[in-house]
Write a structure and sequence with these properties.
12 helices; about 40% helix; Rossmann fold; eight-stranded mixed beta sheet; alpha/beta
Length: about 325
């Protein structure tokens, strides 16, 4: 099946990565046993000195297995906006420090507080558990905004985290809060049906995230769930009105392209505020995997500029 080509620079960088076409329980087990890069490394990569970050870990009893980590600029003067970050990993892997360099870049450039949540993972946790975990962490963050020095909350996530970010934003709207100032959905995993053209295009050969891997992730999280709610698979949500300003970006050469473009289109159809960027030649998670590439730098810069506009600074 014909499909958009990778950006030449990204294609060269991707050639050095070990890739697979499918995700199996055995491969997942091996991936999970690999330690995540320490967040100190990610922070230093973006010139965020550890001495300038106040780090606190919260494990409130009422949140059960959820862990929240708060990063705050050391010299913060008064309340600041908060980015509530949800990591990627196909809903089956990753932790709250995965891809943390992205929101820490906003901490450095925009002076925001970053709260990152560690939700439970599929297949051990199924159904609505993952999105419920993320929502409960969001509620706790909003309820403790005063002590955390937070003025307002932006929800953001990448890949599976982008889908969960969209899910809790819908939950906040439907359940009457907390109020969300904006949502940033980076190559979000929004639709369990895998019925799009881009899903078919990126199937049957090794890649960063393929249709087969996506099917594995969704099977793992849905379990025996037959009536899939829109909070879990946001593409199913019939009503996308009343959402906060939304940023969606994706690549032309990735499995989630069409569901992401459709989500932004439906927000516009509902009269909402959405900005969509579809980066030519970008594969799934390209700017997280290779932030030094020219296309990645452009994608990151554009997101940061949008967030700065929405935060008014």
């Amino acid at each position: 099946m014909t499909k958009p080509a990778f950006d030449p620079e990204l294609r060269t960088l991707l050639a050095g990565m070990p890739l697979s076409s499918e995700l199996t329980p055995e491969l997942l087990h091996r991936i999970r046993r690999m330690p995540s890069p320490p967040f100190e490394t990610d922070a230093e990569r973006h010139d965020v000195a550890l001495g300038e970050i106040a780090l606190t870990v919260f494990r409130p009893e009422n949140l059960g297995e959820i862990a929240l980590t708060v990063f705050r600029p050391e010299n913060l003067d008064g309340p600041a906006p908060c980015v509530y970050w949800i990591h990627g990993g196909g809903m089956v892997m990753g932790d709250r420090f995965s891809q943390i360099d992205i929101p820490l870049e906003w901490l450095r450039e925009l002076g925001v507080v970053v709260v990152t949540v560690e939700h439970r993972l599929a297949p051990e946790a199924t159904g609505t558990t993952l999105v419920d975990d993320c929502y409960r962490g969001l509620v706790w963050t909003a309820e403790n905004a005063g002590s955390l020095g937070i003025s307002r909350v932006v929800v953001a996530g990448i890949s599976a985290g982008g889908g969960l970010a969209a899910g809790i934003t819908l939950m906040a709207r439907d359940l009457g809060g907390p109020e969300i100032a904006a949502q940033v959905l980076i190559c979000p995993m929004l639709d369990h049906r895998n019925a799009t053209t881009s899903s078919a295009q990126y199937s049957g050969e090794p890649g960063v995230w393929t249709r087969e891997m996506n099917e594995f992730g969704w099977r793992s999280v849905l379990g025996d769930l037959t009536d899939v709610p829109g909070h879990v698979s946001p593409a199913l949500a019939r009503d996308l009105s009343g959402l906060p300003p939304t940023y969606v970006d994706t690549g032309t050469a990735e499995v989630f392209r069409d569901e992401d473009v459709d989500y932004a289109t439906r927000i516009w159809a509902a009269g909402g505020d959405a900005e969509l960027h579809t980066w030519a030649g970008g594969f799934h998670g390209f700017d997280a995997l290779h932030p030094q590439a020219r296309l990645s730098a452009a994608a990151r810069r554009t997101r940061t500029e949008w967030l700065a506009r929405k935060l008014g600074g």
